[in-house]
Design brief:
By secondary structure, this protein is mostly helical. It has 5 helices and no strands. It starts with a helix and ends with a helix.
């Protein structure tokens, strides 16, 4: 069977949809920034865990320069965290989770918020 324009169009459409889904899941960060943030995220992981706890999140956010010095700033981050969980879930990057642990996709959406 020949590969015609209709087939090419279908394949490129699938690629565009896949790339858009990946970009949404990564909160539209460029790959180089994702690699750096993933490295910092992994430094905060406990043993073989896939998610960081809130204490690790605080350390990570401070490392990334996110201000969390006052109670108001910390409360704002916690509020944004819930929005980031919903955003990551809506992007298909992370299941909607109410636990205290934070996965990497949620971190990306938090930093984008």
């Amino acid at each position: 069977e020949e590969f015609d324009f209709t087939m090419l169009r279908a394949v490129t459409g699938q690629c565009r949809r896949h790339l858009a889904k990946v970009a949404r899941g990564n909160a539209y960060f460029p790959e180089i920034q994702i690699q750096l943030m993933r490295k910092l995220f992994q430094e905060q992981l406990l043993s073989s865990a896939e998610n960081i706890e809130r204490g690790g999140l605080v350390c990570l956010l401070q490392t990334l320069g996110v201000p969390m010095n006052t109670l108001q700033e910390r409360d704002a981050i916690l509020h944004m965290l819930e929005e980031a969980r919903a955003s990551a879930a809506a992007a298909g990057a992370s299941p909607k989770d109410e636990s205290a642990a934070i996965g990497f996709p949620v971190l990306l959406h938090l930093l984008r918020a």
